[in-house]
Amino acid sequence: MDRAKAMAIIHSTIRDEKVQSVLSINGWDEDNDDPKYLFNFIRNSISSVTNEAKSDVLDEYQTIKCSSFTNLEAFHMRWQTLRKRVKDVGYIINNEVELTNLFNAVKRSFPHEAMLWAADMNKNELTTVSFLARLSTLANTQKNYTNMVAVKVEVKTKETKEIKTESNGDERVACNVCGKKKNYTNMVAAKLEVKTKETKEIKTESNGDGRVACDVCGKKV
Fold first, then answer.
1. Which of 67, 101, 106, 64 has its CA nearest to residue 81?
2. What is the pTM of this model?
């Protein structure tokens, strides 16, 4: 196989921009037309990235903290993902070390529960599996509480919007008796209407002679 054909075959395997970016970062000499050079350079560069990625995963797995996440559920999912990746690349995890690291990752976020967990650890009554089960239960409790609070806030917001809609921009004042707010503008208008009606009735009953009918006998006085 000639050099040009060999180079063409190798180049066909690195068309992805991400792969080319990795090669460039590692100092790829694109003018070098030696297929052996390119083959070895690709192998070493990818191997270096893979080893670096493995190291990053292990480092995050060992230093991850629950306080860096919005809730326990998010932390729990990330920890499980990291644990699987660490095992997939061949790292051997000591059970006692894993349990201690997991405890340290969550103890500051849950100080009250941490005292109970520590007591069980000292009595050898806590394993990684049982600890994960407890964290899962705690995560569900936390999630349910958050959802309940969110519903209450939503209902409160809805009630506030309804009150504002009913007011239609009118000023409202609280009743001295029941405490409920009344539409002040409409309330005054209603009182004026009643007052005007009463005045008209008095004038009609007086027949223009300035006398008012008695409420009991009906006679004018």
1. 64
2. 0.49
**Considering only CA atoms, which of 59, 61, 52 is closest in space to residue 84?**
61
16: phi then psi, degrees, rounded to nearest 5:
-60, 130
* Per-residue pLDDT tens digits for 28-87: 888 888 888 888 888 777 666 577 677 888 889 989 999 999 999 999 999 999 998 888
Domain final position from 167, 194, 213: 167
Number of domain units in the chain = 3
Do 102 and 44 lie in one domain? The reply is: no
What 8-state DSSP symbol labels residue 71? S
Q: Which of 109, 182, 179 is nearest to 139 (CA)?
A: 109
Q: Where are the beta strands (DSSP E) in the chain?
A: 172-174, 181-183
- The residue to which tokens 């990235």 are assigned: 49
Is residue 6 scored above 50 in pLDDT? yes
